[in-house]
């Protein structure tokens, strides 16, 4: 498993897809944790 991080979930996904050079349809994406927003 390879982990990628970003400011948003979408940013992390895009970084991973670009680095691995694969289309989104070929990727198995699992969100491990999301940043908690301050209330």
From TrEMBL:
Report which superkingdom the organism of origin falls in. Answer: Bacteria
Q: Residues in domain RNA-binding protein KhpB N-terminal?
A: 3-38
Q: Which SMART domains match?
A: Jag_N (SM01245)
> Which positions are tagged coiled coil?
none
- InterPro entries xrefs: Jag_N_dom_sf (IPR038247), KhpB_N (IPR032782)
Q: Where is the signal peptide?
A: none
**Protein name (record):** Conserved domain protein
Give the originating organism. Answer: Streptococcus oralis SK313
């Amino acid at each position: 498993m390879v982990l990628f991080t970003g400011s948003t979930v979408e940013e992390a996904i895009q970084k991973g897809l670009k680095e691995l050079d694969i289309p989104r349809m070929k990727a198995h994406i699992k969100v491990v944790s999301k940043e908690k927003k301050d209330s």
